[in-house]
Design brief:
The structure is a single chain. β2 and β3 form a beta hairpin. The protein has 4 domains: 43 residues; 58 residues; 56 residues, no CATH class; 119 residues, Endonuclease, Chain A (3-Layer(aba) Sandwich). The chain has 21 helices and 4 strands. The longest helix is centred in the last third of the chain and has 13 residues. With 330 residues, it is mostly helical.
Length: 330
Protein backbone atom coordinates (compact mmCIF):
# COMPACT_ATOMS: atom_id res chain seq x y z
CA UNK A 1 0.00 0.00 0.00
CA UNK A 2 1.30 3.47 -0.96
CA UNK A 3 2.44 5.67 1.94
CA UNK A 4 0.64 9.00 2.34
CA UNK A 5 2.51 12.27 1.88
CA UNK A 6 3.27 14.12 5.12
CA UNK A 7 3.07 17.91 5.47
CA UNK A 8 6.89 18.08 5.78
CA UNK A 9 7.38 16.14 2.49
CA UNK A 10 4.88 18.39 0.67
CA UNK A 11 6.74 21.49 1.98
CA UNK A 12 10.10 20.08 0.71
CA UNK A 13 8.50 19.30 -2.66
CA UNK A 14 7.08 22.84 -3.06
CA UNK A 15 10.37 24.44 -2.01
CA UNK A 16 12.87 22.32 -3.97
CA UNK A 17 10.96 20.88 -6.98
CA UNK A 18 11.04 24.03 -9.21
CA UNK A 19 14.82 24.66 -9.06
CA UNK A 20 16.71 21.71 -7.49
CA UNK A 21 18.39 18.96 -9.47
CA UNK A 22 16.82 15.49 -9.54
CA UNK A 23 19.65 13.92 -7.48
CA UNK A 24 19.15 16.44 -4.65
CA UNK A 25 15.38 15.99 -4.78
CA UNK A 26 15.65 12.19 -4.49
CA UNK A 27 18.06 12.60 -1.55
CA UNK A 28 15.61 14.91 0.27
CA UNK A 29 12.70 12.50 -0.33
CA UNK A 30 14.27 9.02 0.12
CA UNK A 31 10.93 7.29 0.85
CA UNK A 32 9.38 8.37 -2.47
CA UNK A 33 10.03 7.04 -5.96
CA UNK A 34 10.66 9.40 -8.87
CA UNK A 35 7.25 8.51 -10.35
CA UNK A 36 5.50 9.40 -7.04
CA UNK A 37 7.38 12.73 -6.85
CA UNK A 38 6.49 13.78 -10.42
CA UNK A 39 2.85 12.63 -10.01
CA UNK A 40 2.39 14.59 -6.74
CA UNK A 41 3.97 17.72 -8.27
CA UNK A 42 1.56 17.46 -11.22
CA UNK A 43 -1.45 17.17 -8.84
CA UNK A 44 -0.25 20.19 -6.84
CA UNK A 45 0.41 22.07 -10.15
CA UNK A 46 4.06 22.74 -9.28
CA UNK A 47 6.06 23.44 -12.44
CA UNK A 48 9.76 22.85 -12.92
CA UNK A 49 11.74 25.90 -14.09
CA UNK A 50 14.43 25.61 -16.78
CA UNK A 51 17.93 25.36 -15.29
CA UNK A 52 19.18 28.07 -17.66
CA UNK A 53 16.63 30.52 -16.22
CA UNK A 54 17.49 29.76 -12.60
CA UNK A 55 21.26 30.38 -13.14
CA UNK A 56 22.18 33.78 -14.47
CA UNK A 57 25.50 34.32 -16.27
CA UNK A 58 26.42 37.91 -17.06
CA UNK A 59 27.63 38.93 -20.52
CA UNK A 60 30.99 40.19 -19.17
CA UNK A 61 31.69 36.91 -17.33
CA UNK A 62 30.78 34.80 -20.36
CA UNK A 63 32.76 37.03 -22.76
CA UNK A 64 35.84 36.77 -20.54
CA UNK A 65 35.74 32.94 -20.62
CA UNK A 66 34.52 32.38 -24.21
CA UNK A 67 36.32 35.15 -26.13
CA UNK A 68 39.33 36.23 -24.01
CA UNK A 69 40.36 32.87 -22.49
CA UNK A 70 39.20 30.96 -25.64
CA UNK A 71 37.37 28.26 -23.68
CA UNK A 72 34.84 26.01 -25.43
CA UNK A 73 31.20 25.70 -24.33
CA UNK A 74 31.97 22.24 -22.86
CA UNK A 75 34.89 23.61 -20.80
CA UNK A 76 32.75 26.51 -19.49
CA UNK A 77 29.93 24.09 -18.60
CA UNK A 78 32.36 21.89 -16.63
CA UNK A 79 33.81 24.93 -14.85
CA UNK A 80 30.39 26.26 -13.76
CA UNK A 81 28.99 22.74 -13.13
CA UNK A 82 25.99 23.23 -15.43
CA UNK A 83 24.86 21.71 -18.73
CA UNK A 84 26.24 22.70 -22.13
CA UNK A 85 22.75 23.64 -23.35
CA UNK A 86 22.59 26.33 -20.61
CA UNK A 87 25.86 27.84 -21.90
CA UNK A 88 24.53 27.80 -25.48
CA UNK A 89 21.33 29.49 -24.26
CA UNK A 90 23.30 32.40 -22.75
CA UNK A 91 25.69 32.62 -25.73
CA UNK A 92 22.69 33.16 -28.00
CA UNK A 93 21.07 35.56 -25.51
CA UNK A 94 24.22 37.73 -25.20
CA UNK A 95 24.95 37.36 -28.97
CA UNK A 96 28.42 35.90 -28.49
CA UNK A 97 29.73 33.67 -31.28
CA UNK A 98 32.87 32.64 -33.18
CA UNK A 99 33.24 32.54 -36.94
CA UNK A 100 34.06 29.22 -38.70
CA UNK A 101 37.65 30.35 -39.40
CA UNK A 102 38.18 31.33 -35.73
CA UNK A 103 36.80 27.97 -34.56
CA UNK A 104 39.16 26.11 -36.96
CA UNK A 105 42.16 28.14 -35.79
CA UNK A 106 41.30 27.44 -32.16
CA UNK A 107 40.89 23.71 -32.87
CA UNK A 108 44.30 23.60 -34.63
CA UNK A 109 45.91 25.54 -31.73
CA UNK A 110 44.54 23.11 -29.11
CA UNK A 111 45.34 19.92 -31.08
CA UNK A 112 48.70 21.05 -32.49
CA UNK A 113 50.69 18.64 -30.30
CA UNK A 114 48.55 15.72 -31.45
CA UNK A 115 49.06 16.57 -35.13
CA UNK A 116 52.86 16.72 -34.71
CA UNK A 117 52.99 13.34 -32.92
CA UNK A 118 50.61 11.79 -35.45
CA UNK A 119 48.15 10.71 -32.74
CA UNK A 120 45.15 11.79 -34.79
CA UNK A 121 45.82 9.23 -37.55
CA UNK A 122 43.92 9.83 -40.78
CA UNK A 123 42.59 13.23 -39.64
CA UNK A 124 46.14 14.60 -39.63
CA UNK A 125 46.30 16.81 -42.73
CA UNK A 126 50.01 17.60 -42.15
CA UNK A 127 51.06 13.92 -42.25
CA UNK A 128 53.38 14.47 -45.22
CA UNK A 129 55.54 16.79 -43.04
CA UNK A 130 55.76 14.03 -40.44
CA UNK A 131 56.67 11.26 -42.91
CA UNK A 132 58.16 12.58 -46.19
CA UNK A 133 58.96 10.33 -49.18
CA UNK A 134 62.65 9.85 -48.29
CA UNK A 135 61.86 8.80 -44.72
CA UNK A 136 59.12 6.35 -45.78
CA UNK A 137 61.38 4.83 -48.45
CA UNK A 138 64.19 4.41 -45.93
CA UNK A 139 61.95 2.65 -43.37
CA UNK A 140 60.32 0.34 -45.91
CA UNK A 141 63.26 -0.63 -48.14
CA UNK A 142 66.52 0.10 -46.25
CA UNK A 143 65.43 -0.80 -42.70
CA UNK A 144 63.15 -3.59 -44.09
CA UNK A 145 60.16 -2.67 -41.89
CA UNK A 146 56.65 -3.81 -42.85
CA UNK A 147 53.81 -1.34 -43.45
CA UNK A 148 52.22 -2.54 -40.20
CA UNK A 149 55.41 -1.80 -38.22
CA UNK A 150 55.59 1.71 -39.73
CA UNK A 151 51.90 2.29 -38.91
CA UNK A 152 52.47 1.25 -35.28
CA UNK A 153 55.52 3.53 -35.08
CA UNK A 154 53.51 6.59 -36.17
CA UNK A 155 50.29 5.53 -34.39
CA UNK A 156 48.20 5.45 -37.54
CA UNK A 157 46.47 2.79 -39.66
CA UNK A 158 48.17 0.45 -42.16
CA UNK A 159 45.89 1.70 -44.96
CA UNK A 160 47.23 5.26 -44.39
CA UNK A 161 50.78 4.00 -45.02
CA UNK A 162 49.63 2.17 -48.19
CA UNK A 163 47.93 5.35 -49.40
CA UNK A 164 51.06 7.45 -48.94
CA UNK A 165 53.22 4.77 -50.61
CA UNK A 166 50.87 4.89 -53.60
CA UNK A 167 51.01 8.72 -53.63
CA UNK A 168 54.82 8.74 -53.45
CA UNK A 169 55.08 5.94 -56.10
CA UNK A 170 56.99 3.68 -53.72
CA UNK A 171 56.76 0.05 -55.00
CA UNK A 172 55.63 -2.68 -52.61
CA UNK A 173 57.45 -5.99 -52.03
CA UNK A 174 56.80 -9.03 -54.20
CA UNK A 175 55.60 -12.40 -52.86
CA UNK A 176 59.13 -13.92 -52.93
CA UNK A 177 60.58 -10.93 -51.03
CA UNK A 178 57.91 -11.24 -48.33
CA UNK A 179 58.68 -14.98 -47.97
CA UNK A 180 62.41 -14.21 -47.71
CA UNK A 181 61.74 -11.67 -44.96
CA UNK A 182 59.60 -14.14 -43.00
CA UNK A 183 62.26 -16.88 -43.15
CA UNK A 184 63.69 -17.55 -39.69
CA UNK A 185 61.04 -15.47 -37.88
CA UNK A 186 58.74 -18.39 -37.10
CA UNK A 187 59.40 -19.62 -33.58
CA UNK A 188 59.19 -23.35 -32.83
CA UNK A 189 56.90 -24.69 -30.03
CA UNK A 190 60.02 -25.77 -28.09
CA UNK A 191 61.33 -22.19 -28.00
CA UNK A 192 57.90 -20.93 -26.90
CA UNK A 193 57.86 -23.59 -24.16
CA UNK A 194 61.26 -22.36 -22.90
CA UNK A 195 59.88 -18.80 -22.72
CA UNK A 196 57.05 -20.03 -20.50
CA UNK A 197 54.23 -19.98 -23.08
CA UNK A 198 52.79 -23.38 -22.18
CA UNK A 199 49.59 -24.51 -24.01
CA UNK A 200 46.53 -25.25 -21.85
CA UNK A 201 46.45 -28.99 -22.70
CA UNK A 202 50.05 -29.46 -21.45
CA UNK A 203 49.18 -27.65 -18.19
CA UNK A 204 46.33 -30.14 -17.69
CA UNK A 205 48.54 -33.11 -18.63
CA UNK A 206 46.68 -33.84 -21.89
CA UNK A 207 47.75 -34.46 -25.49
CA UNK A 208 47.29 -31.82 -28.17
CA UNK A 209 43.55 -32.12 -29.04
CA UNK A 210 44.18 -30.97 -32.64
CA UNK A 211 46.35 -34.08 -33.22
CA UNK A 212 43.88 -36.61 -31.77
CA UNK A 213 41.69 -37.75 -34.74
CA UNK A 214 38.56 -38.45 -32.65
CA UNK A 215 38.59 -34.96 -31.05
CA UNK A 216 39.52 -33.24 -34.31
CA UNK A 217 36.63 -35.00 -36.07
CA UNK A 218 34.20 -33.73 -33.42
CA UNK A 219 35.61 -30.20 -33.78
CA UNK A 220 35.24 -30.23 -37.59
CA UNK A 221 31.90 -32.04 -37.66
CA UNK A 222 30.08 -28.77 -36.93
CA UNK A 223 31.81 -27.03 -39.87
CA UNK A 224 29.84 -26.42 -43.08
CA UNK A 225 31.36 -25.52 -46.48
CA UNK A 226 32.02 -21.80 -46.97
CA UNK A 227 31.24 -19.79 -50.13
CA UNK A 228 34.43 -20.57 -52.10
CA UNK A 229 34.21 -24.27 -51.15
CA UNK A 230 30.59 -24.32 -52.38
CA UNK A 231 31.78 -22.84 -55.71
CA UNK A 232 34.40 -25.55 -56.15
CA UNK A 233 31.89 -28.24 -55.12
CA UNK A 234 29.48 -27.08 -57.84
CA UNK A 235 32.31 -27.15 -60.46
CA UNK A 236 33.24 -30.72 -59.42
CA UNK A 237 29.60 -31.93 -59.53
CA UNK A 238 28.79 -30.34 -62.91
CA UNK A 239 31.89 -31.80 -64.57
CA UNK A 240 31.62 -35.21 -62.81
CA UNK A 241 35.12 -35.01 -61.35
CA UNK A 242 36.03 -37.86 -58.92
CA UNK A 243 36.33 -35.81 -55.72
CA UNK A 244 34.12 -35.37 -52.65
CA UNK A 245 34.10 -32.79 -49.85
CA UNK A 246 35.73 -34.10 -46.63
CA UNK A 247 36.45 -30.76 -44.92
CA UNK A 248 33.94 -31.57 -42.17
CA UNK A 249 36.35 -34.09 -40.58
CA UNK A 250 35.46 -37.22 -42.61
CA UNK A 251 39.13 -37.76 -43.52
CA UNK A 252 42.07 -36.70 -41.28
CA UNK A 253 45.71 -37.26 -42.13
CA UNK A 254 48.36 -36.47 -39.52
CA UNK A 255 46.31 -33.76 -37.82
CA UNK A 256 45.34 -32.11 -41.13
CA UNK A 257 41.96 -32.33 -42.79
CA UNK A 258 41.97 -31.83 -46.60
CA UNK A 259 39.01 -30.15 -48.34
CA UNK A 260 38.46 -32.77 -51.10
CA UNK A 261 39.42 -36.46 -51.42
CA UNK A 262 39.65 -38.70 -54.52
CA UNK A 263 36.69 -41.12 -54.71
CA UNK A 264 38.47 -43.59 -57.09
CA UNK A 265 40.78 -44.82 -54.31
CA UNK A 266 43.82 -42.88 -55.52
CA UNK A 267 45.97 -41.11 -52.96
CA UNK A 268 45.03 -37.63 -54.13
CA UNK A 269 43.63 -34.65 -52.19
CA UNK A 270 42.68 -31.06 -53.03
CA UNK A 271 43.18 -28.10 -50.72
CA UNK A 272 41.32 -24.83 -51.40
CA UNK A 273 43.37 -21.90 -50.07
CA UNK A 274 42.16 -18.41 -49.25
CA UNK A 275 44.78 -15.74 -50.02
CA UNK A 276 44.57 -14.05 -46.59
CA UNK A 277 44.83 -17.23 -44.51
CA UNK A 278 47.52 -19.05 -46.52
CA UNK A 279 49.63 -16.49 -48.43
CA UNK A 280 52.41 -14.45 -46.71
CA UNK A 281 52.03 -11.86 -49.49
CA UNK A 282 48.54 -10.90 -48.31
CA UNK A 283 49.14 -11.60 -44.62
CA UNK A 284 52.84 -11.48 -43.52
CA UNK A 285 51.98 -13.00 -40.12
CA UNK A 286 50.26 -16.08 -41.53
CA UNK A 287 50.85 -19.37 -39.70
CA UNK A 288 53.76 -21.09 -41.49
CA UNK A 289 52.05 -24.51 -41.20
CA UNK A 290 49.27 -23.23 -43.50
CA UNK A 291 51.52 -22.17 -46.39
CA UNK A 292 51.82 -23.86 -49.80
CA UNK A 293 55.19 -25.67 -49.38
CA UNK A 294 54.49 -27.00 -45.86
CA UNK A 295 51.07 -28.40 -46.91
CA UNK A 296 52.52 -30.22 -49.97
CA UNK A 297 55.34 -31.75 -47.84
CA UNK A 298 52.87 -32.85 -45.13
CA UNK A 299 50.69 -34.90 -47.53
CA UNK A 300 53.72 -36.24 -49.41
CA UNK A 301 55.02 -37.63 -46.11
CA UNK A 302 51.92 -39.90 -45.99
CA UNK A 303 52.17 -40.84 -49.69
CA UNK A 304 49.43 -38.47 -50.92
CA UNK A 305 49.59 -36.05 -53.84
CA UNK A 306 48.09 -32.65 -53.05
CA UNK A 307 46.67 -30.06 -55.46
CA UNK A 308 46.27 -26.52 -54.14
CA UNK A 309 43.69 -24.23 -55.71
CA UNK A 310 43.63 -20.54 -54.72
CA UNK A 311 40.37 -18.61 -54.20
CA UNK A 312 41.14 -16.08 -56.98
CA UNK A 313 41.53 -18.97 -59.51
CA UNK A 314 37.81 -19.79 -59.22
CA UNK A 315 36.99 -16.73 -61.35
CA UNK A 316 38.18 -18.75 -64.39
CA UNK A 317 36.29 -22.05 -64.18
CA UNK A 318 37.83 -23.55 -67.34
CA UNK A 319 41.35 -23.17 -65.94
CA UNK A 320 40.29 -24.83 -62.68
CA UNK A 321 38.72 -27.80 -64.55
CA UNK A 322 41.88 -28.25 -66.67
CA UNK A 323 44.05 -28.03 -63.56
CA UNK A 324 42.04 -30.78 -61.77
CA UNK A 325 41.97 -33.03 -64.89
CA UNK A 326 45.77 -32.72 -65.31
CA UNK A 327 46.14 -33.58 -61.60
CA UNK A 328 43.98 -36.73 -62.01
CA UNK A 329 45.97 -37.92 -65.06
CA UNK A 330 49.39 -37.22 -63.50
Amino acid sequence: MARRWTEEEIRILKEHYPTSRKEKLFALLPNKTHIAIFAKAKRLKIKRLLLAKTIFISKEELKKMYIDKELSSIEIAKKLNISRSSIKFYLQKHKLSRSISEAKKLSWKKNKGNYIKGLTGRKCSKFWKLLPKGKLEELYWKKRLSSKDIAEMYKTSESTIWGWMKKYDIPRRSFSEVCEMQRGKHVSPKTEFKKGNVPWWIKRGLKNPAKIPSILKKMLNIRTPNKIEMKLMSIIKKNLLPFKFVGNGDFILGGKCPDFLDTNGKKKVIELFGSYWHSPLFNPKVNWNRTYDVTIKHYRKYGFDCLIIWDYELKRKDNVINKIENFINS
